[in-house]
């Protein structure tokens, strides 16, 4: 794999592309204790500033843990395209109606009895501080065929079909 570190606009574009393509991440809190607490979370949006938005219950352990320590780690995987993303950042909890309205999706109705008017609804914004990505340019099928070809011929694969690097959005 080649290294391609991205900054500012290009970094945000790659972050948005990979996170919104995967949609689901492992959202880890309480990072100072092992094992870390983690749970799958569905991404609402990666905005134009590189913030990631999630809907959560005010009564969830994740919200309690964020109130104690707002450092979080997110792991996105899009196995169908061999795309991966690791995000370390800070989480902020919102309870105001405007933010809830902006981030609400009909899918969230499954978790909240009163919909977006449920008093337990909160929105979490994660602001990335350190982000690293892995992306196969050719996609999973071509990459797999490259490995199969190398195995059959006894040669090694051409690692130039993938790229990885830091995403510096600030």
TrEMBL record:
Residue ranges constituting the General stress protein FMN-binding split barrel domain according to the UniProt record: 11-158
InterPro entries xrefs: Split_barrel_FMN-bd, Stress-Dev_Protein, YdaG_split_barrel_FMN-bd
Gene3D superfamilies: Electron Transport, Fmn-binding Protein, Chain A
Matching Pfam families: Pyrid_ox_like (PF16242)
Record protein name field: General stress protein FMN-binding split barrel domain-containing protein
Organism: Flavobacterium flevense
């Amino acid at each position: 794999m080649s290294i391609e570190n991205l900054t500012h606009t290009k970094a945000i574009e790659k972050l948005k592309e990979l996170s919104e393509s995967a949609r689901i991440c492992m959202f880890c809190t309480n990072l100072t204790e092992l094992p870390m607490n983690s749970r799958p979370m569905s991404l609402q949006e990666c905005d134009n500033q590189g913030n990631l938005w999630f809907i959560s219950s005010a009564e969830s352990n994740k919200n309690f843990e964020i109130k104690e320590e707002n450092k979080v780690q997110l792991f996105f995987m899009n196995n169908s395209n061999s795309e991966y993303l690791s995000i370390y950042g800070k989480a902020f909890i919102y309870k105001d109606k405007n933010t809830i309205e902006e981030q609400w999706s009909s899918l969230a109705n499954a978790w909240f009895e009163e919909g977006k008017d449920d008093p337990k609804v909160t929105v979490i914004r994660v602001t990335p501080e350190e982000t690293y990505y892995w992306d196969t340019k050719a996609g999973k099928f071509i990459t797999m065929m490259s490995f199969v070809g190398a195995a059959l011929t006894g040669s090694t694969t051409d690692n130039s079909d993938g790229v990885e690097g830091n995403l510096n959005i600030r």
